[in-house]
């Protein structure tokens, strides 16, 4: 449901080359704007006869932890950071690629194609700009016997500006870049636009992970000339949250979460409270400071 994929689908339909099915992978931590755009574009796809589904990664092994269902709940459970902040890129593989591949493995047209020795074609929304050119070059080195990968926007020579124009031509609102709000690839100006509830969770994620960090400072990994390694420091410097609230989260929330986990570990899995229950309480009370 990002900008490039939206423009790609609009143009493919206009050219009479619509895909058989559209999959949206929900990490559970997209920005509010993306979740608001999703039903808008779902209605457009319905109007144009496109089959579409939202897919999600479904964790199954929780050990003694509370069950979790999103990348945010995952990193809080394990007291870590998203893999991109640790110098790896497995976030997308786990939370986006894997749930889509799992869905396709149970899709009858795919099973028939593979049984006949053919591949399934995946349409990828990489545009012709410099950043996506680097991403597509890396993707081209990955071989997969089940899939053929196609990049329509690059075939057409469309950059991000052309994608914006095409969406506007269709009379649709232009979506923002699809990304988790705790993503280490977020730019400072993107963090500046986040609502307070997202900023509080960023502070919580970094505070929860900090005792285990050795070579990484925070979600932005390392400090540069333009921004600190910790998003919390940026949030504090830009006065995006009350500094007392930041201090309160750092001082108390990780310990409260740990206590919740310790109690949950004593409860059988089928009766164990979900991680989302603790997060609901955090979100409801994070703005209230102790006197």
Comma- or semicolon-separated keywords:
single chain; about 290 residues; mainly alpha; two-stranded parallel ribbon; two-stranded parallel sheet; 13 helices; 4 strands
Brief synopsis:
Helices cover 49% and strands 5% of the residues.
Topology (elements, then pairings):
Elements: H1 3-14, E1 22-25, H2 32-47, E2 52-55, H3 71-78, H4 90-105, H5 108-115, E3 120-123, H6 130-139, E4 147-150, H7 152-156, H8 160-169, H9 188-192, H10 196-209, H11 231-237, H12 243-264, H13 275-285
Parallel strand pairs: 1-2, 3-4
> CA-to-CA gap between the ends?
43 Å
Strand content: 5-15%
Shape: globular
Secondary structure tally, helices: 13
Counted beta strands: 4
Instruction: Report the C-alpha radius of gyration, rounded.
Output: 21 Å
**How is the biggest beta sheet arranged?**
2 strands, parallel
Helix-and-strand structural type: mainly alpha
The run of helices and strands is: HEHEHHHEHEHHHHHHH
Query: Low-confidence parts, pLDDT < 50 over ≥5 residues?
Result: 286-291
Q: Taking all residues together, what is the mean pLDDT?
A: 92
Spatial order of the strands in the main sheet? 1-2
Fold and architecture overview:
The chain is mostly helical and 291 residues long. It has 13 helices and four strands. Strands 1-2 form a two-stranded parallel ribbon. Strands 3-4 form a two-stranded parallel ribbon. Strand 3 (120-123), helix 6 and strand 4 (147-150) form a beta-alpha-beta unit. Helix 10 (196-209) crosses helix 12. The longest helix has 22 residues, at 243-264. The radius of gyration is 21 Å and the shape is globular. Mean pLDDT is 92; it is low at 286-291.
């Amino acid at each position: 449901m990002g900008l490039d994929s939206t423009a790609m689908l609009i143009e493919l339909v206009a050219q009479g080359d619509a895909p058989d099915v559209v999959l949206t992978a929900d990490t559970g931590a997209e920005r509010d704007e993306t979740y608001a755009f999703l039903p808008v574009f779902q209605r457009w796809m319905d109007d144009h006869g496109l089959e579409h589904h939202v897919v999600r990664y479904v964790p199954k092994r929780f050990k003694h932890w509370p069950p979790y269902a999103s990348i945010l709940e995952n990193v809080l459970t394990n007291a870590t950071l998203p893999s991109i902040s640790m110098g790896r890129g497995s976030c997308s593989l786990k939370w986006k690629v894997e749930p889509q591949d799992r869905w396709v493995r149970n899709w009858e047209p795919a099973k028939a194609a593979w049984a006949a020795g053919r591949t399934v074609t995946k349409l990828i929304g990489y545009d012709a700009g410099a950043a996506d050119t680097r991403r597509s070059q890396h993707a081209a080195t990955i071989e997969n016997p089940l899939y053929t990968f196609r990049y329509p926007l690059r075939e057409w020579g469309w950059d991000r500006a052309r994608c914006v124009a095409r969406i506007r031509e269709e009379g649709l609102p232009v979506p923002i870049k699809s990304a988790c709000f705790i993503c280490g690839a977020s730019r400072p100006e993107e963090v500046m636009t986040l609502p307070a509830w997202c900023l509080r969770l960023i502070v919580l994620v970094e505070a929860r992970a900090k005792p285990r960090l050795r070579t990484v400072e925070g979600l932005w990994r390392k400090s540069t000339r333009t921004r600190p390694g910790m998003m919390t420091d940026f949030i504090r410097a830009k006065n995006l949250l009350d500094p007392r609230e930041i201090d309160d989260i750092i001082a108390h929330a990780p310990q409260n979460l740990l206590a919740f986990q310790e109690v949950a570990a004593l409860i059988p899995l089928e009766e164990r409270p979900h991680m989302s229950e603790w997060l609901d309480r955090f979100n409801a009370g994070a703005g209230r400071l102790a006197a």
